[in-house]
């Protein structure tokens, strides 16, 4: 086989060392991100508790809106009935 058809790749120890350093930097960044995620279950539990504590607000708002619309409808009916 002629030599010019063979790919020419030169891998040196320096190239391997540089790639290893890049991989180590990536690993360190990944571990830092994972360390920041360690408290996610606690934060999620706290968020769920806050949402559970505030779940009564929409119920009260809907009840007030419903009773207001009912009173408005009753008032309109009373006015129309009196005519």
Question: Can you describe what's shown?
Answer:
The structure is a single chain. With 83 residues, the protein is an all-alpha fold. The chain has one domain (3-82). 78% of the residues lie in helices and 0% in strands. The protein contains 3 helices and no strands. The protein has helices spanning 13-36, 40-53, 56-82. The longest helix has 27 residues, at 56-82. It starts with 12 loop residues before the first helix and ends with a helix. The mean pLDDT is 87.
Key terms:
83 residues, single chain, 3 helices, 0% strand, mainly alpha
Query: What is the helix tally?
Result: 3
Radius of gyration: 35 Å
Outline the biggest β-sheet. none
Class by helix and strand content? mainly alpha
What proportion of the residues form beta strands (DSSP E)? under 5%
Q: Write the element-wise H/E pattern from the N-terminal end onward.
A: HHH
Number of strands: 0
Tell me which oligomeric state these chains represent.
single chain
Q: In percent, how helical is the residue content?
A: over 70%
Q: Report the principal-axis shape.
A: elongated
Give the distance, in angstroms, between the N- and C-terminal Cα atoms: 108 Å
What's the pLDDT, averaged over the residues?
87
Number of spatially distinct domains: 1
Low-pLDDT regions: none
Sum this structure up briefly:
The protein has 83 residues and is mainly α. 78% of the residues lie in helices and 0% in strands. The mean pLDDT is 87.
Could you outline the blueprint of secondary structure elements for this entry?
Elements: H1 13-36, H2 40-53, H3 56-82
């Amino acid at each position: 086989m002629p030599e010019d058809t063979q790919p020419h790749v030169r891998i040196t120890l320096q190239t391997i060392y540089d790639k290893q350093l890049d991989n180590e930097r990536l690993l360190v960044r990944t571990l830092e991100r994972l360390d920041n995620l360690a408290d996610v279950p606690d934060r999620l539990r706290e968020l769920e508790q806050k949402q559970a504590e505030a779940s009564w607000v929409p119920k009260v708002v809907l009840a007030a809106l419903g009773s207001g619309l009912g009173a408005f409808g009753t008032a309109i009916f009373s006015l129309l009935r009196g005519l």
